[in-house]
Amino acid sequence: MISLTNGPRAGFERVRTIIAYFLATAMVFVSAGVSAAPVCSTGSDGTVVIGVAETGTRVNVYYAAPDPTATTTTVPAGATLIPIDETLGPQATNLHSSVSPTIAAGDILIVAQMIGAEIDTTDNHLGAGDYGDGPGGLVQAGTLDTSNSIAGRYEFVIATGPVSGGVIPIEGAGSGNGLINEYVNSNATTATLGFRRYQVIKVPQFSRLSIEGEVVSDRWNGRWGGISALNVRENLDLQGGSFNADGRGFRGGQFFPDRSDDQQGAVDGNFGFKGEGIAGLPQRLYSRVLLEEQPATQGEELGPAGYAGTDGGGVSGTAWTRDSGLGAPGNAGSGGGDAEDAGGGGGGNFARGGFGGRGVNDIAGTEGIGGAFFPEHEAPTANLMVMGGGGGASNGNDTGALDLTVSSGQAGGGIVFVRSVGIVATGGGVVSANGDSGGSAASEGGGGGGAGGTVVVHSLNSSVDGIAFTAIGGDGGSSEANLDGSGGGGSGGVVWLSDTTLGSATFDVSGGVAGLAPSGGNYLGTAGGDGAQQSIAPIAPFDCNFVTLGIAKEFTSQTRVGSTGNVFDLVFTLTVENFTAEPAINVQVTDDLDAAFPNAASITIQGTPGLGGFTG
């Protein structure tokens, strides 16, 4: 029981006997289970239909972590305040009108560590060595098994108020009702650590949702995006609609002619840019989605080198840098190199990406290396989810026939997260998180395909009959020139489903095929590995046990102020009682005194409410 007592002063013409005003309202988010509160939808965003003409619709609002060029931000486990970039503010491209772009108390949020992994950076520019996960592991790929490898962590929390002073106040399932995990955002690099990134995503709480059109995420741009997530209290109905996270994950390495041997005095030892992945990002990136949304960019993005290690170290005349070379960091594909026109490696996710084809003169150890599978050091689980790794770029040199779309590495698929008590597909539907493909007709080597992304669907004894789930790896880029290597295929992604009847649902998590190369043989890359469809337990009980609250407002006393006049001190007691066994958390009570006393000339609140042992 919660007793709230306040003492307002009200002026009005006449006071009658007042017995009880039931004008107070209460809002509560409740569930049994450790992490249940953050995932139980209240349905506060209502019943929504996304029509067939609504393509490219977003339902999420993204909050980037503080500017990493200015500061390193570490949010410890147990924290109840999450720093964000308040200057940048909420990011909400083409947001559906039912979703508010701001955060308020009771909103459901995801906190996600997008990038953050430690790697061994020795042997970066060799065809075989310890780069990635160190001695005795994968050849030239992967991550070290350390506490700094934190990419893929995520958790649900509830906002307890709006953004203020650059932080979001939250309640979570960790110690002290704070976060379970630690999150880091930084541009600092060391010999083993690259950039790290977290973001906060507002998740809508629909009562019912019908999708005839298309729901997409913002593309991942290095600070936010890549995830489309929603929570539905009753039924999600895919009426021929779709979730589309294709190519919205980690970006590919950009094809850049200055990285060729011809441009560097015909000295062997130059390499294409690596793709982006869980361990960092290169300074030159490529994205098909960016090209479509902003054609003037040609799909190119520039930034500081965000991988671990040091620049330089190559033979005279080469352009060795930490973000180029044959080492595949984490799940990103490496660039081709050490011989002109070598193919880039494909990105990885649930499986490893394919290798690129060899470059000119058929030199062994020049092919781009495929990104590693995730997770590498523990069993796969839906408690860790990552975007598909970006493919690596070729190291060609023909600027007169520059083809970024084929010789650049391609972006991986993003993440789709759905939690709905019921799921139906009355008109069929598609949930896709495919990696991008490189295409054909390059006069240089081909870039690696992007890996398929991640799909997570939680429901309660529902059927996904008629829904097509895809997390396909992208194909490597093809070349039309002799002695040029093709790109490796991206790996397939993963589809996690809980408590569902499959019916006629279809799943395609196949790895992408390698691109074509006229010279065949060693100039051909390899396919990415296939992903998987996995079954999991629901993230939390679906009964959610929304509590039944009783609210009573009792008028307890009135005292005239002064000997004359119509100004009175009134005292009320609000009693909120929980009639269920489950605890009520994040209860918010609103008392509308203006509505209670419409004839009052003025209402002045004196003092603060007594909370009877509860905190406000």
Key features?
616 residues, mainly beta, elongated
Task: Compile the SSE list and pairings.
Elements: E1 2-11, E2 25-27, E3 47-50, E4 61-64, E5 73-75, E6 81-83, E7 108-115, E8 141-142, E9 154-159, E10 167-171, E11 183-185, E12 197-203, E13 205-206, E14 208-211, E15 214-216, E16 227-238, E17 242-244, E18 252-253, E19 284-286, H1 288-293, E20 300-302, E21 328-329, H2 404-407, E22 415-424, E23 429-432, E24 454-463, E25 467-470, E26 494-501, E27 506-508, E28 532-536, E29 549-560, E30 567-578, E31 588-590, H3 593-596, E32 602-610
Total helices: the number is 3
Query: Using DSSP, what is the number of strands?
Result: 32
* Largest sheet geometry: 8 strands, parallel
How big a fraction of the residues is strand? 25-35%
User: Which spans have pLDDT < 50 for at least 5 consecutive residues?
Assistant: 1-38, 261-267
Please give the alpha-carbon distance between the first and last residues.
14 Å
Mean pLDDT: 84
Radius of gyration: 28 Å
Helix content: under 10%
What would you call the structural class? mainly beta
Shape: elongated
Give a structural overview:
The chain has 616 residues and is mainly beta. The chain is 2% helix and 28% strand. The protein contains three helices and 32 strands. The chain has helices spanning 288-293, 404-407, 593-596, and strands at 2-11, 25-27, 47-50, 61-64, 73-75, 81-83, 108-115, 141-142, 154-159, 167-171, 183-185, 197-203, 205-206, 208-211, 214-216, 227-238, 242-244, 252-253, 284-286, 300-302, 328-329, 415-424, 429-432, 454-463, 467-470, 494-501, 506-508, 532-536, 549-560, 567-578, 588-590, 602-610. Strands 3, 13, 14, 16, 22, 24, 26 and 28 form an eight-stranded parallel beta sheet that branches. A six-stranded antiparallel beta sheet has the order 4-12-7-9-10-6, with no helix packed on it. It has a five-stranded parallel beta sheet with strand order 15-17-23-25-27, with no helix packed on it. A hairpin with a 6-residue loop joins strand 29 and strand 30 (567-578). It starts with a strand and ends in a 6-residue tail after the last strand.
